[in-house]
Amino acid sequence: MRPTNTDTISVILAGGYSRRMGRDKGLIEIGEYSNFLKKTVRRIGILTEKVYVSLRVEQISEYSKYLPSESLIVDADIPVKGPLKGILSSWKFLEGKGFSEKSILFLPVDMPFVRIRTLKRLLDSFLFEDSGVFYRSKTGIEPICGIYSSHCLSDWFRSFETDAGGEFSLQKRLAKMTPKILTLPSEEEVYFRNINTGLDL
Fold this sequence. Notes:
Structural class: alpha/beta
Distance between the termini: 28 Å
Strand content: 15-25%
Number of strands: 9
CATH superfamily: Spore Coat Polysaccharide Biosynthesis Protein SpsA, Chain A
Mean pLDDT: 91
Strand order of the largest sheet: 5-4-1-6-8-7-9
Low-confidence stretches: none
CATH topology: Spore Coat Polysaccharide Biosynthesis Protein SpsA, Chain A
CATH class: Alpha Beta
C-alpha cells in the first residue's frame, strides 16, 4: 500500500530507558517473527513516505539489525530530558536533511497496537497553520502520539538555546499552546495505550 501522506514525516520514539519493563521495549517480541519496533514501523509506514526512529547512541547496534542507519536519529547533545529530547533531536536532524518545513507525526515504540485509522485521523485533521494535533482520552491529552508542526518545534528548540532551564514537560508545553485536540473514539482506547510492564502485554 502506498503511503497516503508526503507532507508529514513519521518518527518512532524509542529512546526511553524502559526501566519499568527492564529491557528495551522496542525489541520485545510479538509472536514469532515481529517485535514492537517492526510492528510500529509497518503501521506508520503505511501512512507516511518517510519513517525514522529516534534513539540513544547505545541502541544503534541493535536497531541497525532492523533498519538502515540513515533511518536512525541519535539524541542530540542538547540540555533537554525525557521524550522532549527525542522530539527536538528529531526536528534538528530533519532540519539538517532539508525537511525543516515538514510536520512530524510522533509515535512511541511502546504503543504497537494503535489502530492505523487512529493515526490516519491525526494526519487527515492536520492543517499547515495548526501548531499540532493530538488526542484526548480518558486520561487526558496524549502528547507523545501526535503531530507537531515544524514552526512549533523550531520555536521550542530555539528556546533551549537561550534558556537551558526550560520546561521539559510536554503536557505543560501543550497547555500553553492552542493545538487541535481530537476526541479518541471509545472503541479505539483499548489499543491506544503504552506497554510499560509485562502485565500490560
